[in-house]
Specification:
Elements: H1 4-11, E1 17-23, E2 32-38, H2 56-69, E3 72-78, H3 80-86, H4 88-101, E4 109-113, E5 124-127, H5 135-158, H6 164-167, H7 173-182, H8 194-198
Helix pairs in contact: 2-5, 3-4
């Protein structure tokens, strides 16, 4: 995975370009997580790719390498309550802002996965399918996914009957069955479960 987008920004005079991606827009439970990563210019990492194309074990391995080698990285969250209050898109943008704010040293330009640019404190550009084209976005996609999966595994310990370690909060058959049997938890996104909540 190359750093063409990062180099392009550097040619425009930016010195700290971060990639941003999120994990967990679709699930019925748990927060949405975003990560921002500034990679060194000569960064090389075998197997760096869109987190969705990697196994859980491989993501965990790459997470270690990325956090070790990154110039800086930040993780940001938006809670289930925030998702319900402002909608998932705005909550995703909020998590992205928080991730950028957690960068130390800070970034001066952002490359964001997707087709819409969140309102950030720095300029940037959105790249459609960026997690498969841009090294720093791919790195961010891995950090966000691993951070969120770890949190969902913690929720699994707290609520073992819901199977969070397996489905990570997504709307699988077994997850819907557990909600039906045991009810809606505080970690569920009520706006995603309107039909169930009304029954």
């Amino acid at each position: 995975m190359n750093q063409d987008y990062e180099r392009e920004a550097a040619e425009q005079g930016y010195t700290a370009v971060c990639g941003i991606d999120e994990a967990g827009r679709g699930p019925l439970a748990g927060p949405v997580c975003a990560a921002a990563v500034i990679l060194p210019p000569d960064f090389q990492l075998d197997g760096l790719n869109d987190s969705k194309k990697l196994s859980e074990k491989r993501r965990e391995e790459l997470y270690g390498s990325i956090t070790l080698q990154a110039v800086s990285f930040g993780i940001g969250w938006a809670s289930e309550a925030e998702i319900d209050e402002i909608n998932i898109l705005q909550a995703t943008f909020l998590a992205m802002r928080r991730a950028v704010d957690n960068l130390n040293p800070p970034a001066d330009y952002a490359l964001v996965d997707g087709n819409r640019m969140p309102l950030l404190s720095i300029p940037g550009k959105a790249i459609v399918k960026g997690d498969g084209k841009c090294a720093s976005i791919a790195a961010a996609s891995i950090l966000a996914k691993v951070a969120r999966d770890r949190l969902l595994r913690e929720l699994d310990v707290k609520y073992p009957q819901y199977g969070f370690a397996q489905h990570k909060g997504y709307g699988t058959k077994s997850h819907y069955a557990a909600i039906k049997q045991y009810g809606i938890l505080s970690v569920h996104r009520r706006s995603f479960l309107k039909n169930i909540a009304e029954k």
